[in-house]
Design goal:
28% strand, globular, 105 residues, 1 helix, 5-stranded antiparallel beta sheet
Length: 105
């Protein structure tokens, strides 16, 4: 397959730490305004958006938009989650393991 490039969509496998961080961030809304459903976006008084969505889990494979390609094929990008938020990460290597990106089949 060709080298990754900015704007391409590849796949990212969530690591345990990724899933924990996503779920913790989503659970934080319990200390603020209540959300009545996963389709509703609530904005707090300071303009912060509440993060809601289905629980994330390690080994979940999700689409990733490449925003920068680093030396050696490592990429920076936004992972699209099953919710109203995204996961930003830097320097993910190509592969099929946790915390890595791969080409779609």
């Amino acid at each position: 397959m060709s080298a990754p490039s900015t704007g391409r969509i590849v796949l990212y496998t969530l690591a345990e730490a990724d899933a924990d961080a996503i779920n913790r961030r989503r659970d934080d809304h319990r200390n603020g305004p209540r959300v009545s459903g996963t389709q509703e976006i609530v904005v707090q008084g300071d303009g912060a958006q509440v993060h809601v969505g289905n629980p994330a889990r390690a080994d979940q494979v999700l689409p990733l938009l490449v925003v920068r390609v680093n030396p050696g094929g490592h990429v920076n990008g936004q992972v699209f989650l099953d919710g109203n938020d995204t996961l930003w990460f830097t320097s993910a290597a190509e592969g099929y393991g946790r915390g890595q990106w791969s080409w779609p089949p």
